[in-house]
Input
Amino acid sequence: MQTPAADPASADVLVVGAGIAGLTAAALLAKAGLQVELVEAHRQSGGCAGTFQRGPYTFDVGATQVAGLEPGGIHQRIFRHLGVAPPAAAALDPGCVVDLADGRPPVRLHRDPTRWRAERQAQFPGSERFWSLCAAVHQANWAFAGRDPVLPPRSAWDLAQLLAALGPLNLASGLLTTATMADLQRLSGCGHDRRLRRFLDLQLKLYSQEPADRTAALYGATVLAMVQEPLGLWHLQGSMQRLAEALERGLDLAGGTLRRRHRVTALQPPIGTSGLWQVLGEGPGGRPFQAQPRDVVLTLPPQTLPALLGDALPAGYRRRLSALPDPSGALVFYGAVPRQQLPTDCPSHLQRDSSDPGPLFVSVSQEGDGRAPAGEATVIASVFTPARPWFDLEEGTYQRRKARALAAIQAGLNQLLGLEAAAWCHAELATPRGWAGWTGRPFGWVGGLGQHPSRFGPFGLASRTPLAGLWLCGDAIHPGEGTAGVSLSALMASRQLLQARGRPLHLDD
Ligand SMILES: Cc1cc2nc3c(=O)[nH]c(=O)nc-3n(C[C@H](O)[C@H](O)[C@H](O)COP(=O)(O)OP(=O)(O)OC[C@H]3O[C@@H](n4cnc5c(N)ncnc54)[C@H](O)[C@@H]3O)c2cc1C
Output
């Protein structure tokens, strides 16, 4: 039997998973003076917001655009707190161009609010009351989110944070807690507008995993406001990995440690009065490691808890986790083409409705942004797919389905971008099986629990678990997926952990 290595044994706080949530939590906790170890199964950090290299191309593996880099945005606030420069980024304008495949001109999501108002009035006549209602709900949401609430509350302190974050506008928008975006459309008198509904379905599904009639109004209203100033979506210079690298610098500066190739395999709650967790895992080469931290911050999907905790998981909590609906999976195409074959002024992000292979979300690299050699562009396209069925297939069938999906996505891109089939210099596809391998997520699930009203905000899974010293953050925790969302959840869990140790954490605006 091998002797367990002592590596992360000295950790006072062990953070599991160095995606954006784990990097953010680890850096904040280390900055607050705790002895923090961050363990990551992969050879690199970033998780769903990382990159990989194929010959001369750098592909953003999942996330391709970043919210929260504007002044006062969550990434900016965190970088300022950590004393680290944020990654170089340019605001996206348009944020996205959405082709509803109905023969009408695509919808351009302009950054300038005035141009966006003119665009939506031309595209969806008679819908202005809907947009005004969304804007009012968003303003209430945004002020609330900026006061760092704790949601859902599980202690007196959590409740005090929540109440302190509420303003008069939230009391009004609170009436919409159980409403969906489709309800807002009906309330505004434009429920009959099927083109608007299709637009909302496409955009909301990207961020909430749900269409308009299943997306919480309090969430969806903010999604629709993300592109325009004073907020914005940003394109990182170099690659998405720059975000993780900047957070790594913050962790390092604060004295925390990141251990790559360290996979956690089991968590055992404190026994007796020790107050120490027992964390077991495998380091490089399968070498076992263990750690005895006082606190564990888990950024993996909470559906991993039954396997990690075994019988130590409280029965009621286990039932709650097993009742969660499956998150979505994704098929992601990574390709490259000569830039001259792309349409002139090709936007960086496009969305196109399609029944086969399904609505595509497309990201095209910009000249000189570090992703492709001069004169070429990377093209990434993703489509949602139910994840589990990909795991039931025998190898031959799996390969055939994968090849068929790749061909369907490529055909969709050829149509959208006016490309010849021979234009492609590179083409490959990741299925949920690939995602499971890259991220360690069960069935390669992407995104969180979905933003249905029954799982949003007060009805979501809490970062404070029933097991003392075990905290959750990441895209299954409020406010949900996206690098900005998981950073907010990391801040929330870090504040709770620090408060439990009598060290309040406050970020300046
Ligand atoms: C295709 C796709 C496109 C997206 N596009 C965008 C976008 O444009 N903009 C945006 O903001 N968001 C986007 N997202 C969402 C965003 O990428 C995620 O919400 C966010 O990056 C999740 O971060 P996380 O830290 O919670 O989880 P993850 O990124 O999954 O990080 C978890 C980490 O834990 C590690 N790990 C897993 N198991 C173990 C273990 N047992 N022990 C140790 N480590 C382990 C993993 O290797 C991983 O690094 C996209 C996601 C996908 C999949």
